[in-house]
Design a protein that fits this description.
Blueprint: E1 23-28, E2 38-42, E3 56-63, E4 71-81, E5 86-95, E6 98-110, E7 115-122, E8 127-135, E9 139-147, E10 156-166, E11 169-178, E12 184-193
Antiparallel strand pairs: 1-2, 3-4, 3-12, 4-5, 5-6, 6-7, 7-8, 8-9, 9-10, 10-11, 11-12
Length: 195
């Protein structure tokens, strides 16, 4: 039973917002142990709504991309989750009908810091944390950090992008740069919405 604010543990979901209606959630207890709870007003009006067109299934093919030789087939299923505050993706990449990569990702807009964030879990055994350095209604560009950093990626900076070509066509890709060099395309796939 909660009998004082001293015992209050608050999970701050400010980054996700709550709904188009305004809600009040406690954000913190002041360091001076004042019994007054500060409140923060949150809303979901965010640039993520410009990207709701992504919801559905996408397919695309690329050749000699992403460090692979030959043709790759990409299949992506995107759904709107967490009360319309996040887009969840399930990705699968095949080569010669053999799965070479699977990925689960969550994309959301951090209203506190005014950036898009995407966290992705790869079958390769690492996780990427992406923070947008540029975003609009037609393009997202992210800086990427890895957990854990794969040995072969040491000394390399990575960024990713999503570009809206039309409501039924997008480009997704990766760029890399060695220390002191400009970014170069590592791989790109054009995807078509199929459902």
């Amino acid at each position: 039973m909660l009998d004082s604010l001293d015992n209050l543990m608050v999970i701050n979901w400010v980054g996700f917002g709550i709904s188009k209606d305004l809600y009040r959630l406690p954000c913190s207890v002041p360091a001076n142990n004042d019994r007054t709870v500060r409140w923060q007003i949150m809303t979901t009006d965010s640039p993520l709504e410009d990207w709701h067109f992504l919801i559905g299934q996408w397919k695309g093919r690329s050749t000699d991309q992403f460090g692979e030789t030959g043709e790759l087939e990409s299949i992506i299923k995107l759904t709107l989750e967490l009360g319309r505050r996040a887009i969840m993706g399930i990705y699968e990449t095949k080569q010669n009908d053999k799965i070479i990569n699977q990925e689960i990702s969550v994309l959301f807009f951090d209203v506190l810091n005014k950036v898009f964030r995407r966290k992705s879990f790869f079958s390769y055994g690492f996780v990427t944390n992406e923070v947008s350095y540029e975003h609009s209604s037609t393009a997202l560009r992210f800086d990427i950090t890895f957990e854990p950093l794969p040995t072969q990626f040491k000394g390399t900076r990575w960024c990713s992008f999503i570009t809206k070509v039309s409501p039924t066509q997008i480009l997704e890709g990766l760029e890399q740069a060695k220390k002191g060099e400009d970014f170069k395309l590592y791989g790109e796939v054009q995807l078509e919405k199929v459902s």
